[in-house]
Structure formats: structure tokens, C-alpha cells
Amino acid sequence: MDEARQWDRLMRMAQLGAIPGDGVNRPCLSPLDREARRLLIGWARELGLTVATDGLANLFLRHEGTDPEAAPVLTGSHMDSQPNGGRFDGIWGVLAGLEAVQAIREAGIATRRPIEVVAWTNEEGGRFAPGCMGSMAWSGFRPADSWDSVTDAAGTTFRAALEEHLAAEADLPRRPFGTPRPHAYVEAHIEQGPRLEAGGLDIGIVTGIQGSRWFTVEIHGRTDHAGTTPLGQRKDAVQDMLRAIAALNALTHDPADVLRFTVGRVEVFPNASNTVANWRASASTCATRTRMCC
Questions:
Q1: Distances in Å between the alpha carbon of 69 and those of 14, 110, 138, 231, 293?
Q2: How far is CA 171 from CA 165, 183, 218, 282, in A?
Q3: In a 3-state reduction of DSSP, which class is residue 141?
Q4: Distance, CA of 1 to chain centre
Q5: Distance of alpha carbon 81 from alpha carbon 90, whole angstroms
Q6: pLDDT for position 187
Q7: Residue 57 has what DSSP assignment?
Q8: Which residues pair with 213 in a beta bridge?
Q9: What's the sign of the alpha-carbon dihedral 99, 190, 122, 83?
Q10: What is the Cα–Cα distance from 102 to 6, expressed in whole angstroms?
């Protein structure tokens, strides 16, 4: 492995969507996402790897084995980020796979199985929810058109963004979903949570992953004038929201700190300073079974 080479690639990727605090904002299926992918494709082609995508723009970089019919070993992660994402989250898993393949090739080692480095589409869900769309479609867990009508904050549908992206990568070969089926999958990942750093640890072995459930909840009230309507006559959706969140926090309290409950998004209507809210919606996630052994 070449530590300096891998660090240089990480830093070049971190420039694409860089935000203050050494973070990154690189939404999926955006011009920044395409720029990052082209940079990765350039490195892969310099190594002699073949490049392909599928119908959800999952990106595959293939190192051929001595038995091209053997099921490949698949490794990788994602290149998109949350709006305030970390510069290593996801992208290191992709670049670590590329570095491993390059080290194997430079050492003159012939592998029987092919090795494929993958970058999954919309793994984070920062622009389009839910996340993991590319991997869910690839694995057959959900049909590829399941999220066509999902919109981002600007009102762009996932299908429209995907079609624009696929058109920009029309020069890349397209493969069917889920082919070839892998022999094994391994992912190096930096989640950038606080536990390893707080414990002074360099690396951890993941023994489980969150089982997440996402809900969009709507609470309907009645709009009234905030200055004249008595509290006893109001149907204030924001106050009901606060009571619901407090009750859910109590319900999901876990002394072992394994269960997570998060309210990630709140929308209030009509969102005026002198008006009682008549409607609000929150997208929240309740994730369970999070464990890591370090």
C-alpha cells in the first residue's frame, strides 16, 4: 500500500464539495458527484481497470482475475455525502478498495477471482430519502423504479436527476442489476462517529449494524392569530409535535445506549412568527441494534 498516494487521493476528493471545518457537501447525482466519479474513473483507467455502471448509476471498477468466470470479490462504499458530511465517510471505502487493487497489480500478483470496486448511488440519502437506493436496487431488495417520484428540497425528482446523470455518463458501459453476483463483499468504512476517537482507538471491528426504520409523521392543527387566540382554544400543531417527541424520547430511552431515536427534519406551516401552526411534518428515524466491538 502507498500511504501518501491514498492520502493525496482522499484530499483531492475532499476538495469537491469542501465546506468549512474540513467537511464536505457532495450530494448524489449532482455535478460535484459526477466530477468526483470522473476523477475516480480516471485513476481506475490509468491502472487498466474496466469501468461500468448499472441502471441506478452504481459504479463498478473491475480488476480481472485469471478465471474471468469466477464470482468476483466486491469492495467499496459511497461517494455522496450528507449536507455537513465528513471528508472520509464513504469515500475512503472506495479509495481503499482502489488502493488495494493497485497494490496487488503493482506487486505482480495474479488473483483467480476478479476484484470489483463499487461506488453505490445515494447511499447517504442526504439529497433523496431514503438512503441505500443503489444497493437496494442492485441486491433486488426493491425495484429500481421504487423512488422515481421522491423529490429533493428543490423539488427535483430522483428519476429526473438519475436520467440527467446517466445521460452524462452515456459513454460508460451499462450492466444489468446484480450481475455478476459476488463471491464476497468487504467494506472499509469511516463513519466518523465519536466512539473510537473518545476511546483513543485507531480501528474497530464492526459486529452489527443499525436496523433503521424511517417515518414521516404529519400533525394537523388549526391556524389562528397568535396575539388574540386564547391558549385554551388553540389547536397548535407545534405544541403537539413537542409532546409527541417528548413521549417518543421516553419510550425509546435505553440505559445501554444501543437504541437511537432521531428527529432529523421539521417543517412548519404557515411558518409565520405571529401565526399558530396548523400543520407540521417531521421525518424521523428510529434505529436499533447498533453495536461495535473495538
A1: 36, 15, 20, 72, 36
A2: 12, 28, 44, 40
A3: coil
A4: 27
A5: 8
A6: 93
A7: -
A8: 286
A9: negative
A10: 11
Residue 290's pLDDT is 37
User: Which amino acid is located at 66 in the chain?
Assistant: T
Give the model's pLDDT for residue 283.
60
Give the distance, in angstroms, between the CA of residue 79 and the centroid of all CA atoms in the same chain: 8
pTM: 0.84
- For 8, the grid coordinates are 493525496
The residues pairing with 287 across neighbouring beta strands, listed in sequence order, are 212, 260
Instruction: Report CA-CA distances (Å) from 178 to 98, 143, 181.
Output: 20, 12, 6
All three cell numbers of 23, joined, read 467537511
| Alpha-carbon gap, residue 183 to 61, rounded angstroms | 16
Give SS3 for 120. strand
Query: Could you tell me if 158 and 128 are in contact, meaning their C-beta atoms sit under 8 angstroms apart?
Result: yes
CB-CB contact of 146 with 31 (8 Å): no
Tell me the per-residue pLDDT of 223-253, one tens digit each, with 9 for 90 and over: 999 999 999 999 999 999 999 999 999 999 9
The list of the chain residues with pLDDT below 50 reads: 288-294
Cβ atoms < 10 Å from Cβ of 127: 26
